[in-house]
Amino acid sequence: xxxxxxxxxxxxxxxxxxxxxxxxxxxxxxxxxxxxxxxxxxxxxxxxxxxxxxxxxxxxxxxxxxxxxxxxxxxxxxxxxxxxxxxxxxxxxxxxxxxxxxxxxxxxxxxxxxxxxxxxxxxxxxxxxxxxxxxxxxxxxxxxxxxxxxxxxxxxx
Length: 157
Description:
With 157 residues, the protein is α+β, with helices and mostly antiparallel strands. The chain is built from three helices and five strands. The protein has a five-stranded mixed sheet with strand order 2-1-3-4-5, with helices on both faces. α3 links the parallel β3 (95-101) and β4 (131-137). The longest helix is centred in the last third of the chain and has 17 residues, at 111-127. The mean pLDDT is 90.
């Protein structure tokens, strides 16, 4: 006689808890709106460490939340695209805005910045969660918007 031993597995829950009513969420209509939200919620280490954050937007381009994806060193941080989109799916985001800082004050994107943006854009296309901008912040209240500069038109095919 064969006895089957029950197999236990972990339960996975998908939840999103908001503290802000939809009508009270900041609306993003241009890059300066996104910059203001990001700058207002950035850590106090903007001049010390490079960080990577993601804004999640609903269908009306209202900010659903911010995910602090990674903290790194003086001139870089490791970003996992899968974690960003796991959080975006969990929050039911319709689009996302990428953001990271340059502690050096140099506002221009590096080759690595452009490549990670391309990688995010490819994943977003597959998941139907478009990346609408990638903003680089600096400690001296300056920013660079890849969307404003036309750097978001990747050939994704």
